[in-house]
Amino acid sequence: MRKLFIASLTCLLHFATIAQSTKDSLPSEVNLQQAVDFSLTHQPVIRQSLVDQEITEANIRSRLADWYPQLNMRYNLQHNFVVQTAVIGDNKVKLGTDNTSAAQFTVSQTLFDRDVLLASNTRNTVRRQARQNTSNNKIEIAAQVSKAFYNVLASEQQVKVSTENINRIQRSLKDAYNQYQAGAADKTDYKRATIGLNNAQALKKTNEEQLKAKLSYLKSLMGYPDSITLEIVYDSLQMEKEVYLDTAQQVDITQRIEYKQLETQRNLLQANLRYNKWSFLPSLSANGAYNLNYQNNTFKDLYNENFPNSFAALTLN
Fold first, then answer.
1. What angle do CA 28, 30, 31 make, to 5 degrees?
2. What is the mean pLDDT of the chain?
3. Which residues pair with 315 in a beta bridge?
4. Cβ–Cβ < 8 Å for 54, 237
5. What's the pLDDT tens digit per position in 31-47?
6. Which of 6, 159, 202, 286 has its CA 20 to 30 A from that of 100?
7. How far is the C-alpha of 82 from the C-alpha of 129, rounded, in Å?
8. What's the number of domains the chain is made of?
């Protein structure tokens, strides 16, 4: 009982250590580049794209396996309770024995098949399409994370502006109240400052709620746990440098992922068109077999004598 308790405690400590290390590996502060890198690793859409690539590769190998020789083996053991009898002339002849057994070894090789030929010709294009889908998803996620990052940053600045505005209005309210108490101003200025303060506080509350929503949206895009606090950091000087664009760079639409995807899709459609044009072509395969046949009326002597046969053939369908 004591050993069982110690083993259970050890397992709990092990899993707790794993969970703690996983939690500690999550960054509490991220800049834009770190947010994008984290999302490209943990975003479910990216993970699904990588899984789709593996599935595509497995499907390609499965289709190309039809080019390999196919080996088969079949074994049969049969006891005839009543052997078929045929009348030849005036004689009754039994067609067979009481016990039979056979083993068949066959081999077949596809020489031409339009399905296998399509898979062979389009395998690299299909692989490219899967990689391009993953690249497109990464670009989309990076763009969405960047927009969400800057939205959070803008909301944080709005909250700071609202806080400074509230401090300014509070000072104005205090001055208006003191002037009202001293009789230097009427109650209108004091009331106007009070209304302005309430509006500023309400605006700050709205900005804070928007900041929470935008931060949660950023976490969802990154694949970051919503229960863990995340703070964004930035370098204003570096951001100013990144604003400027290289106007000397020429635009090349062929480098865009959308263009590449359309080009890959066109190649696949052309291959499918050729496949349909080949519909009149038959499939050709070579096959052969070697058979072991054992026949005897006595079961214990069944495998004493073998009557083998073999053949090779070409099949055109």
1. 165
2. 84
3. 285
4. no
5. 888 889 999 988 899 99
6. 286
7. 62
8. 1
Q: Could you tell me the two tokens for 219?
A: 């976490």
Residue at 194 is within a domain: yes
Is 18 among the domain residues? no
Separation of alpha carbons 117 and 132, rounded Å: 23
**Domain CATH code at residue 195:** 1.20.1600.10
Tell me the HSE value of 234 on the side-chain side, using a 13 A CA sphere: 17
Its pTM stands at 0.72
Dump pLDDT digits (tens) for 151-203: 999 999 999 999 998 898 888 888 777 777 777 667 777 788 888 889 989 99
The verdict on residue 309 lying in a domain is: yes
How many degrees, rounded to 5, is the angle at CA 308 between CA 304 and CA 312? Answer: 165
3-state secondary structure of 250: coil
Q: Can you give the residue range of the structural domain that contains 220?
A: 28-316
Question: Alpha-carbon Rg of the chain, whole angstroms?
Answer: 39
Instruction: Give 252-296 pLDDT, tens digit per residue.
Output: 888 899 999 999 999 999 999 999 998 888 999 999 999 999 998
Q: Which residues sit opposite 99 in a β-bridge?
A: 79, 296
Q: Cα-Cα-Cα-Cα dihedral of 61, 40, 23, 227, to 10°?
A: -120
Cα dihedral 133, 137, 143, 149, rounded to 10, equals -170
Residue 7 lies in a domain: no
Q: What is the DSSP code (8-state) at residue 255?
A: G
Q: Which two tokens stand for residue 271?
A: 């291959």
Query: How many whole angstroms from its chain centre is CA 223?
Result: 14
Residue 227: name the closest of 15, 19, 18 by CA: 19
Name residue 29's amino acid. E
Task: State yes or no: pLDDT of 243 exceeds 80.
Answer: no
- Taking the alpha carbons of 178, 182, 184, 190 in that order, is the dihedral positive or negative? positive
Instruction: Report how far residue 268's alpha carbon sits from residue 287's, in angstroms, rounded to the nearest whole number.
Output: 32
Looking at this protein, which amino acid is placed at residue 238?
Q
Place of tokens 């052309």: 270
pLDDT above 70: percentage of residues in the chain: 87
